[in-house]
Amino acid sequence: MQQIQPCLFKAYASQYEELILKELHIHGEVPTWLSGSFISIGPSQFEVGSTNFNHWFDGFAMLKKFTFKSGCIHFQNQFLQSQEYIESNRRGKLNANEFGTYASKSKLGRVLFSLKELVGSKLHDNCVVNTTRIDDSYIAMTESKNVVSFNIKNLSTTKNFNFNDKITEHLTTAHPHFDPTTGELINIAIEVGKANKYHIYKIDPLSKTRKIIQTYLSHNLFYIHSFSITRNYIILFKSPLVINKFKLLFGLPFNNTLAYKENLPSVFVIVDRRNGKLHEIEAEPFVCIHSINAYEHKNEIILDLICQQAGNPYDKLYLSNLCSSKPTLPTGAIKRYVVDTQARNCNQEILTSNNQEFPRINYKRCNGNNYQFIYTNSIDGPNNQFFNTIQKMNTQTGSIQHWRKKDNYVGEALFVSKPHCQSEDDGILLSIAFDINTQLSTLIIIDALSMQLLAEAYLPIHLPFGLHGNFYNDTIV
């Protein structure tokens, strides 16, 4: 077990308990219009046998569901029954390399595992990053080609999900987009080879078949965690953070394959959704893990991103750093790029330079369109060991509002819109918080208009810091 600082003892400690709680104790009032389920995913087991995991992203995935009905909150959490989770716990040792931890100490074992994985006979399916819906399936995702589907009613794992096509895929992003008009899902399937192929595809609603919009060829296997869409364009961010395909082949943990190449520029790869035409626009080097939004204005594309400092930001997410007395988190500035699609150039400005990550917007209303508000996690004040503030930024005026609570650290703040709302920010924010005094977790409900606390729902257990979540308003328990 890592030597965790006392105030964060349980925030990075395994949580093995799986609960079904009919009704959580609530302080405050939950809006009665809030109906559906907030499902979040993240790591929850950080050791197996004698192996302690090295990286935050190594932990085995746990699904957490908060279901809202008539002002009450039901809670359930359950481990995702991935092949990695099942086999590792059955054997009492790590079955596959995780993001920053070796499964095999021998070079031969690493290579054999990697080869099996590339040809599909060995699964890397610890889908710890995000969840989404494709057709009638709810799936957990990571950045490998493998996804795991689950039953949204009871969180039981159902099976490994398969697409109905023959696109070759080794890597992907766990941040697909949905077109607000057509309902199409858009994502990227990465085929590793001599010429690396980034297959940009769409899936029609009620389908599991991917249709390629365009394939981008790249000599460098550049790392991409997210991307942006507008009504007419798909924008990829080709940064100097690249994957060494030989290290990937030789079985190193994924983070060990990443390297920042100082001699490379960043490039916006822009694909026209109407005809598949592709062009590149070069920019000064930057690393973007999470995009925020993009929209069109005349012949320009306005891109809002969280940009990190040069280097590999994931190097700061090893538990040895996170559990230290003065951890350094990979936060960034909110930057706006104005890309001229005719002149083929771009300009940038910093919207806010303080420590930001995990951006969210009113996605259903604003994704791909002109918008006003960004919600992020931020670090406010000295000596904070994780995100302690939820920030709301007005992109039009530059004004900033905050919510924070003493001795609480917060997770990603998910925006849920009020039915028939008039304004973009008429809704609530959902965030899982960790109280360093009780060493327990709570669900925070914030009024997105005023940034005031509406309600807290108390859990009898701690939930380790998680990653991403989504709200599914067709799910009632």
Describe this structure in words.
The protein is mostly beta strands. The chain has a single domain, classed as YVTN repeat-like/Quinoprotein amine dehydrogenase (Methylamine Dehydrogenase, Chain H), CATH 2.130.10.10. The protein is built from 5 helices and 35 strands. It is globular.
Beta-strand content bin: 35-45%
Instruction: Give the strand order, joined by hyphens, for the main sheet.
Output: 23-24-25-26-27-28-29
Instruction: Give average pLDDT, whole number.
Output: 93
The low-pLDDT segments are: none
Q: Which structural class do you get from the secondary structure elements?
A: mainly beta
Largest sheet at a glance? 7 strands, antiparallel
Summarize the structure.
Helix content is 7%, strand content 43%. The chain has 477 residues and is mainly β.
Features of the shown structure:
EC 1.13.11.75, Methylamine Dehydrogenase, Chain H, 8'-apo-beta-carotenal 15,15'-oxygenase, mainly beta, metal ion binding, 477 residues, seven-stranded antiparallel β-sheet
What is the element layout, followed by pairings?
Elements: E1 20-21, E2 25-28, E3 36-45, E4 47-48, E5 51-52, E6 60-69, E7 72-79, H1 83-91, H2 107-118, E8 130-134, E9 137-141, E10 148-150, E11 157-160, E12 171-172, E13 177-178, E14 185-191, E15 196-203, E16 210-218, E17 228-229, E18 233-238, E19 241-243, H3 245-249, E20 258-260, E21 266-272, E22 278-283, E23 287-297, E24 300-308, H4 319-322, E25 332-340, E26 345-360, H5 363-366, E27 373-378, E28 389-394, E29 400-403, E30 408-410, E31 414-417, E32 427-435, E33 440-447, E34 452-458, E35 469-472
Antiparallel strand pairs: 1-7, 2-34, 3-6, 3-35, 4-5, 6-7, 8-9, 9-10, 10-11, 12-14, 13-14, 14-15, 15-16, 17-18, 18-21, 19-20, 21-22, 23-24, 24-25, 25-26, 26-27, 27-28, 28-29, 30-32, 31-32, 32-33, 33-34
